[in-house]
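New here. Invent one.

***
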Amino acid sequence: MFIGHLGAGFAAKSVDKKISLGTLFLASQFIDLLWPILLLLGLESVKIESGDTVVTPLNFISYPISHSMLGVIFWGILFGIVYYLGKKNLRGSILLGALVFSHWLLDLLTHRPDLQLFPWSDYKVGLGLWNSFLGTVIVEGLIFALGVFIFYKVCNLQSKSKIILFWSLVIFLAAVYVMNLFGPPPPSEEPIAIVGLSQWLLIA
């Protein structure tokens, strides 16, 4: 749901124009940015199993800190508080906290039942959209396209340079998504964490 999450970030600009797109992206992807750190620390785990779902070979064994529902609520509240302390923008802090939690809701749509409600619970949920390649591409593509459309209309970009920069970003993100869909699976678990950490550079 990479571009789906970013689509939510694009769309959120309509709620508070004062928040930078980078900050919106950071909130929408925050738990996926946190996850590789926890992987490297050995606090969460993943395995490469080809065919685990049609879309991804990753079998998410355990990620209660970053991806349980309660965990994501905690990270959303924390993100909102930190933003409020820095910017004194209550509307923006609520928006960013909600955007962090939106990540879990979108993951609920795509993941097979591997998302815990609570870190200590064995009960897992997931609607399994990733079991349909076409369905995944359509749904994620529509969310991304809608977010891009909303952002473009709200921001009313005027200068040619800003328009070129905007569409270059959109094309780049779409290209990354396509390469991720059709690229080979990672050779081992460690590169997954390293690639995940590289998202920090993209968001920054």
Q: What stands out?
A: The radius of gyration is 17 Å. Strands lie at 45-48, 58-62, 115-116, 124-125.
